[in-house]
Design brief:
14 strands, 356 residues, alpha/beta, 6-stranded parallel beta sheet, Rossmann fold, globular
């Protein structure tokens, strides 16, 4: 008997200090495990990016956060691709030597991984990224010249025929920052992640193409107490390789449903079977949409965040599990069509319903 593909969405919000997924690619083991037991895994760059480290998951779909929100709200669909032509935007504010490092990294992905990159564009003004921290502890930020970013993206899309956009913006260096030191030791919020999301959201919202961001920073001094969860970001001069790998196969967005000829393999929110996310971070737009879709919501208690928004607070019916290991067990049973209740020794008898 043919069954439709079992589809899981894995969400770890950006810049909220998630115990797992709040650092440099440390949610990749979770993504790999879930991808091995489902037919399709939909997740976002924060989960799959690991600076110079990445992992090929053939059944995983790399979907930027704003695009994921639109997908969850049933405004956009996802169309899998074999390969995207990826355009690269470099911030004019990046120093010449650091710019060269990023260009060499991009060339290396062409030579060693066979990625299809267009020629690159340098913005016509420095982007001027400014980092902020909210009262909750979550990171966010602004860019001083968003129009310059959009002009560069438009050139890549119209002239170079880019199908996805990678952005490298110069971020402020603050090696003595207490926030950065805490993050390097595995006990803080990523100070860059919130601003990165602002950049990619702007491009996706404007041009409706896949986009992801890699910050340009000077290398930090060696830290003997560096956390393994933060270590991937300190292996070299650039975070760009994982972004280019992710964008090379990121699904295209289906945005014009009324004039659409549907294709086999197109993915829509109504096909999502389960959503896995931290139990304290249930307030995102995507989560609120998925909670109305009939998908099983699995809230992982062990993955703590700086947010304090449990599913019950929003009236979301969720299955609470202690860990991702327990979440994997639920997904295996759900995929197999087995009620989780049947795996408990305390299975209760059926009760009769009244007709009146």
């Amino acid at each position: 008997m043919n069954r439709r593909p079992y589809t899981v969405v894995l969400i770890v919000p950006t810049g909220v200090g998630a115990s797992i997924g709040g650092y440099a690619g440390d949610a990749l083991p979770v993504a790999r495990a879930i991808a091995s037991i489902c037919d399709r895994l939909i997740t976002h760059p924060n989960v799959l990016n690991g600076a110079q480290l990445y992992w090929n998951l053939p059944n995983a779909f790399y979907v930027e956060g704003y695009g994921l929100d639109k997908f969850a709200a049933e405004c956009w669909g996802l169309r899998p691709v074999h390969q995207n032509r990826v355009g690269l935007i470099l911030d004019q504010g990046i120093e010449p030597e650091l710019r060269l490092r990023h260009l060499q990294a991009a060339d290396a992905t062409r030579a060693t991984l066979g990625l299809n990159l267009t020629d690159y564009v340098v913005t016509d003004a420095p982007l001027k990224v400014d980092l902020r921290t909210a009262a909750s502890g979550a990171s966010w930020g602004t860019i001083g010249n968003p129009d310059s970013l959009l002009r560069a993206a438009q050139v890549l899309i119209e002239q170079a025929k880019a199908e996805a956009i990678a952005v490298v913006a110069r971020f402020p260096d603050d090696p003595e920052s207490e926030v950065l030191q805490a993050y390097r030791q595995g006990r803080g919020v990523d100070p860059l992640a919130g601003a990165e999301a602002v950049i990619s959201h702007l491009v996706v919202r404007t041009f409706k193409v896949p986009c992801a961001h890699a910050p340009a920073l000077k290398p930090l001094p060696i830290d003997p107490d560096l956390s393994p969860r933060s270590a991937a970001e300190e292996l070299g001069y650039t975070f760009l390789p994982c972004v280019l790998v992710g964008l090379s196969r990121a699904p295209q967005f289906i945005v014009d449903q009324q004039n659409l000829t549907s294709r086999s393999g197109d993915i829509w929110a109504k096909e999502v079977d389960a959503v896995v996310l931290p139990a304290t971070a249930c307030g995102s737009s995507a989560m609120l949409s998925f909670s109305q879709s009939g998908a099983s919501i699995i809230a992982v208690e062990e993955n703590q965040t700086s947010m304090k928004v449990p599913p019950e607070f929003l009236g979301i019916k969720a299955i609470r599990v202690h860990s991702y290991l327990e979440a994997l067990g639920f997904l295996v049973a759900h995929h197999a069509g087995i009620s989780a209740d049947a795996l408990s020794p305390s299975l209760s008898s059926l009760h009769r319903l009244s007709l009146s």
